[in-house]
Amino acid sequence: MAVLTILCIACFPINPLVQTGLLKPGYYLPLFILGWIVWAAGMILVIMPIVMFPRRGAVPKGQSFVHTTRLVDTGIYGIVRHPQYLGGILAIFVATLLLYPHWLFAVLGILGAVILYWSTREEERRLIVQFGSDYQAYMQRVPRMNLILGIVRLYRRRKRR
Fold this sequence. Notes:
Elements lengths: L1 H9 L5 H4 L9 H28 L26 H17 L3 H29 L1 H9 L5 H14 L1
Helix pairs in contact: 1-5, 3-4, 4-5, 5-6
């Protein structure tokens, strides 16, 4: 995870490499504006579990929000299984590439996205052990991080009801 931490710092929207003048990426106002919009959307996805898990995940009093005892499959979790990871990819890597178009950020962004995606696979192994067949059924209903597919599947599930 040290590699991921370094990537997050290097790709943070208020980028140290750009702010210190070490890199001089292109600047295109429409991409810059889109970059901040993508960053904001990603941060919303990152923050949502911090709010939702204590309310819906039966987190024991005094424990961190990650210590759920109940599977949360509603709200954003009815659309994607890993909104926090998806938000991280959007907020850190995609937004930075839009804000500061440069080949280095493209390479770092791809590497970071792969590491985060791989992390979801590791987390799912743990969640299958914790929640068993309920989590496996959830995996069949809700995509890992594909937001568009998740919205389509949610719409189809609601339409069938």
